[in-house]
What we know:
This protein is an alpha+beta fold. 27% of the residues lie in helices and 23% in strands.
Amino acid sequence: MSGDGVLTELKAYAKGTKAFFVDDAEAWVQATQTSKTVDAEARTVQMTFERDGHAETEYKFEATFDELNAKTKVLPPLCNPPQLEGIDDLTSLSYLNEPAVLHNLQARYAMHNIYTYSGIVLVALNPFARVPLYSQDTLEAYAGRMRGELEPHLFAISEDAFQGMVRDRRNQTIIVSGESGA
Length: 182
């Protein structure tokens, strides 16, 4: 990436832009950009961010264009717009980076939604409690429905596989992977 490529990438960072920063206690935290200085001649960038909800915590990002080109320094991962917060399919996120994915899963979990799609994959988070997600009524609600018509659910995946067997007359596979209980 040339200096022009770096300048193009930096256009996404403006005052008010939200980005993620590593945090020892919470893994990633969101911060809002308060300033940006780009010196095209010296080929450097300096940005300052203020942690959301903690005005006293400031993050500074400084790099040369050469460091960004060589990937020895990486721009802070951008946050998704608020309207995508808790979206049910990770592939719909504007910014698909590690902290954005984890943040979205955390937001859904806080809303008691333990299932999230990532394309055709269903991500399930352990609720560490009994949940009323597997009743006969819930099973019947997903029967005959296409995946994506209702909230992500294990029943949607099984119904999709079943319909695939009936429609295409071909075997279907569902892979379940994870820790204990998988």
